[in-house]
Amino acid sequence: MIHRILIIEDLKDTIDLIKNTLGDEYELYFTTTAAEAFQILKLNKIDLIITDLKLPDSTGVDLLKIVKKQDSNITVIIVTGYGSITSAVNAMKSGAFDYLTKPLDIDELKIVIERAFQQKKLTDEIKDLKFQLSEKYGFDNIIARSPNMLKVFEKVKQVSETNATVLVTGESGTGKELIAKAIHFNSNRKNNSFLAINCGALPENLLESELFGYEKGAFTGATSRKMGKVELANKGTLFLDEIGELSLFTQVKLLRFLEQKEFMRLGGNRVISVDVRLITATNKNLEDEVQAGQFREDFYYRLKVFEIFLPPLRERINDIPLIAVHYLKEFSKQYKKKIECFSKEAIEKLKIYNWPGNIRELKNLIESIVIVIDKPMITPDEISLKFNSGETSEAEFKNWNFEGKTLEEFEKDIITRTYFQNNRNKTKTANILGIGRTTLIRKLKKNNID
Ligand SMILES: Nc1ncnc2c1ncn2[C@@H]1O[C@H](COP(=O)(O)OP(=O)(O)OP(=O)(O)O)[C@@H](O)[C@H]1O
Ligand SMILES: [Mg+2]
């Protein structure tokens, strides 16, 4: 790339000297006035300006200020004819890259120009890197320092460069979708679509048409042709969430698609081939599903070509404060609150909890705290956790007064309390206790609770 330099100078000797020494290396533009200089700047992409301090219609410093306001990337070098320190300092303060004194030393000028372009290149490179990093989706949004998560990042990087099918596993709320996006946005498919379908949210026939699309008249109500996500994601990535919910029938169809990279729209007879990368996710143990006959073994092996397991939050305890603070900042900003931090004890409380809902639960908790709290520091009292921490200390156990109750009596207690607290709502009570409604009804009867 050849650099363009604009020189604002009226001495013919200086102009000739510059032409002779720099003319081969750079594209040069000459003018004598500020007004003309702005004209040239409007029409050409100038990288560097060398201007006299004293111009017939302005000063070099005034010109510099206007130029910098319009495009801070343009480098300006000022030539002062007076050897005046004040004007040199003034020029530098206004953002000049450097200043030179007359009579112009052409070798010095050459060096200054080279230095300017070197620096420009560095700044551009840094800008580029920053852009790439922020674009590297995921990595900005995924807060993680724990060794087991750094290993996950490593895997994401490795697999992003390939077209391999990826299976992301992990408990609910561990960030499976986030990782799927990170893979896509780090791959060379990043400029094409990332499309997602939640396989658990749609009934079988709808899911099929969502995936493969249909032709006009394929079924009652198919009044026009519709493209499926498989087709729309061409050259991009298709993310199938809750893949464990897929019916055996749809598994067959997807397996065929994976093997042949081809499919037909519902009710169509034309084979369409596409280039789609598939990422799937599940919080189920698919091996168990295979054992139980709910999941095709061949399909399972096809999906888990490359598997990424996301550890539950309780296995990345040191990430808990980082994530908590990250969301505290984010939600404080969103809700315009001035909450600055957690107390040490509050952080401890977060760290010993076992987070069955993982990062999603932590994120939701922080949001609910930010909504109600209005003071700079969050203390343990303000953190109400849904479940008891799994990590009750030995001392706590020893101090606990059992009142000589049997396990059965405890159970009766807990059921009664929860049932009454929820105004005898059976579904709610069953949900809270983590048992089925029928089990609850049986236990209520058995214990004569009403
Ligand atoms: N490491 C992390 N740092 C910051 N936020 C995270 C992290 N992991 C997950 N989250 C956030 O937690 C929420 C849940 O993440 P995500 O939806 O990716 O989980 P999931 O594993 O797909 O859950 P589910 O199995 O319920 O679908 C999202 O809001 C996501 O932004
Ligand atoms: Mg998900």
What does this 3D model show about the protein?
With 450 residues, the protein is an alpha/beta fold. It folds into four domains: 4-132, Rossmann fold; 138-311, 3-Layer(aba) Sandwich (Rossmann fold), CATH 3.40.50; 314-382, Helicase, Ruva Protein, domain 3, CATH 1.10.8.60; 401-446, Homeodomain-like (Arc Repressor Mutant, subunit A), CATH 1.10.10. It is 47% helix and 15% strand. The protein has 19 helices and 18 strands. The protein has helices spanning 12-22, 34-43, 60-70, 85-93, 106-135, 147-160, 176-185, 204-212, 229-232, 248-260, 286-291, 297-303, 319-334, 344-352, 358-372, 394-399, 407-421, 426-433, 437-446; strands at 4-8, 27-31, 48-52, 54-55, 58-59, 75-80, 98-101, 166-170, 194-198, 213-214, 226-227, 237-241, 262-263, 272-273, 277-282, 306-310, 341-342, 377-378. Strands 2-1-3-6-7 form a five-stranded parallel beta sheet, with helices on both faces. Strand 4 (54-55) and strand 5 (58-59) form a beta hairpin. Helix 18 crosses helix 19. The model has no long low-confidence stretch (mean pLDDT 89). Bound molecules: adenosine-5'-triphosphate (ATP) and magnesium ion. Residues 176-177, 241 line the site of magnesium ion (MG).
